[in-house]
Design a protein that fits this description.
The chain folds into 4 domains: 30 residues; 97 residues; 131 residues, no CATH class; 274 residues, no CATH class. Helix 2 packs antiparallel against helix 4 and helix 9 runs antiparallel to helix 11. The N terminus is likely disordered. A 3-stranded mixed sheet has the order 1-3-2, with helices on one face. It starts with a helix and ends with a helix. The chain is an all-alpha fold. It is 65% helix and 2% strand.
């Protein structure tokens, strides 16, 4: 009897596994899967599995014992981009197989998000070459060492072997990317002269560094220190191989780019806006739509920026008065008088920089435990503060956030730029920490990644107005919740908001009103009080990232508008944590779809009376 029971159970299990296997095969290969979620997820999964660097960044296969992808680099041939757009068009067309009336509310929202994103991406195919892959901010020339330092984990000798294998394959990838650059050159899409000059300097400094001082070597050395049971001889042999690969593979790979851009430099001009490129006005309009997820015109955004600049400066002047700062000579004089106090700055030393990182962590730990009833949902992933790698610090932004891995092995990271000690005044540190960390990017990004039952396209979609809008909203929220009690810290918050308002003006000024680089620098100088070196770096960022800088203020204003809408509708029933639930628990969204979510939350709350 027992034997027959086990036999029956075994046969039943085989039948179940067979049916499950057949279902999985159908859902993976069928033109129209039975489950809408399966349709939404399978294309992003296929795309990710064709990109080993993406798999490393996501960090979930390693926990399953799968790690061969960590020895590979992405295939960067232009044909792969063509194939990607073919896949995206097919993916978009397939959405229409699922009628709206057959989907529940969450599925319908997923369909709307996918449709919105894919429509823009498919439209962008005609302008796929209208950006500069090599640029001073985030270009292909700095991507590899940054990726290896921040993303490639080394916990074993095998991981180290994969690290070395990737260095061996860099020349192949750079040769493929050169093909892409040449296509741009043939189409008249050449970066402004200053961009090429910055890129060339960055690369030349990189290859002039002795191999044992290169970040690829030093990063591997640090990671090997954490590998258990690694002998001294094994460590030395791995580092010796790394040194040889840097000299004989990595540096020659960079030489390909250096030679190309040296020859390209005489062809570059000094006009900076996208208007100078073929169909540049259309491309800029599409960029604004992509980054703001609105239909605002460049002129509307420009005028909105001018209005906000006036408002925020007036608020700051009032605070200067309360601190006894002389405001009789105008905003810039008052701002300079305030920020010139030496008490706001750390010592320009290694110890001073170490103290900045420690103080950032203290600020984040404080707010993490003090948010109280403002949030019902928190990310499981931890967060740490680290310095931007030295090799790219000079041309990097003041800070940025890096998402955690899916398997929890790597926390979220707030990268702080410590190149210029004067760029980190104490009165601005809280605001920056709240923006990049808690409750800003870390809450929004990590919570989205951890959402259960949500299709991948909603967990990982990049809607800049939503994500950057949330981070800027987080700055004001922290102030409202009492975490910036000192007037100086509140001025720091307004400095950051003014900075984002000025961005509306200068981004549209450069790419719509045809301001040159110097005009944009002058406007930002006389309206922010920032150091000229910082202003120059920012303007040069907007030149190579048209439209992106407008997303912060547009997104923040929309979230505040929706919060007020909920307050007005719910009155005493309004609950801040439930509002934040509605914003965060649905993943990144275009702003009009975010408004739909908030309307549903309001209606549900009213309906529960």
């Amino acid at each position: 009897m027992i034997k027959r029971l086990f036999k029956w159970a075994g046969l039943t299990l085989l039948v179940i596994l067979g049916l499950a296997g057949g279902l999985i095969a159908h859902e993976w290969h069928a033109e129209k899967p039975w489950f809408f979620r399966a349709y939404l997820d399978r294309t992003p999964i296929r795309i990710a599995f064709q990109r080993p660097e993406t798999l490393t960044s996501l960090g979930f296969l390693e926990s399953l014992g799968i790690n061969g992808h960590n020895a590979e680099l992405n295939d960067a041939h232009p044909d792969r981009t063509t194939e990607l757009f073919d896949v995206l068009r097919e993916y978009r067309a397939g959405l229409d197989q699922y009628a709206d009336d057959t989907l529940d509310a969450n599925q319908l929202m997923s369909k709307q998000v996918a449709r919105y994103l894919l429509d823009i991406l498919v439209e962008a195919e005609a302008y796929r070459y209208h950006f500069y892959p090599a640029n001073q901010m985030f270009g292909i020339q700095s991507a590899f060492p940054s990726f290896m330092e921040a993303q490639h984990q080394v916990r074993s000798i095998e991981d180290a072997e994969h690290y070395l294998a990737r260095m061996e394959k860099l020349q192949r990838k750079y040769k493929q990317q050169l093909l892409d650059l040449i296509i741009r050159e043939q189409r008249g899409i050449i970066p402004p002269r200053f961009v090429i000059e910055r890129v060339l300097k960055q690369m030349q400094d990189f290859v002039d560094t002795p191999a044992e001082d290169n970040i690829l070597y030093s990063s591997l050395a640090e990671k090997l220190d954490e590998v258990e049971n690694l002998t001294r001889d094994e460590r030395n042999q791995l580092l010796l191989r790394a040194q040889g690969l840097i000299d004989n593979q990595v540096y020659p790979a960079y030489g390909l780019f250096i030679d190309y851009f040296t020859e390209l430099l005489p062809k570059a001009g000094t006009d900076d806006g996208y208007w100078r490129l073929p169909e540049g006005d259309k491309v800029y309009a599409l960029a604004l739509k992509l980054f703001t997820t609105t239909d605002y015109t460049a002129e509307e955004i420009h005028q909105l920026g001018l209005t906000e600049v006036d408002r925020i400066q007036a608020d700051m002047m009032g605070l200067f008065d309360t601190l006894g700062v002389d405001t009789s000579k105008g905003f810039i004089a008052a701002s300079n008088a305030f920020s010139s106090d030496p008490a706001f700055y750390y010592k320009d030393s290694d110890a001073g920089r170490a103290q900045i990182l420690e103080d950032y962590q203290t600020i984040l730990d404080e707010i993490d435990v003090g948010l109280g009833s403002a949030f019902n949902i928190r990310p499981k992933a931890g967060m740490e503060v680290v310095r931007i790698p030295l090799f790219k610090e000079e041309t990097s932004p003041g800070a940025y956030y890096q998402q955690p891995s899916l398997d929890g092995s790597r926390p979220g990271r707030f990268f702080a730029n410590l190149f210029d000690i004067k760029a980190t005044p104490t009165f601005g540190m809280r605001t920056l920490a709240y923006h990049e960390g808690i409750p800003g990017h870390h809450f929004q990004v990590a919570i989205a990644m951890e959402l259960e039952g949500m299709p991948l396209i909603r967990r990982f979609a990049m809607f800049s107005a939503y994500s950057e809008g949330w981070a800027l909203y987080a700055e004001q929220l922290a102030w409202e919740l009492g975490f910036q009690q000192h007037t100086e810290d509140n001025i720091g918050r307004l400095v950051a908001e003014l900075f984002r308002a000025v961005r509306l003006v200068v981004d549209t000024g450069i790419h719509h009103k045809r301001w040159n680089r110097e005009e944009a620098i002058d406007y930002m100088l006389i309206n922010t009080g920032m150091a000229e070196s910082d202003v120059t770096s920012e303007i040069e960022r907007y030149i190579v990232m048209p439209g992106q800088a407008t997303s912060y203020k547009i997104g923040m204003m929309k979230i505040l508008e929706l919060r007020q809408k909920a307050r007005d509708a719910l009155g005493d029933r309004f609950d801040l944590a439930r509002f934040h639930d509605a914003v965060l628990k649905n993943g990144p969204l275009p702003l009009d779809l975010l408004e739909q979510i908030i309307d549903q939350y309001i209606a549900a709350d009213i309906g529960s009376l």
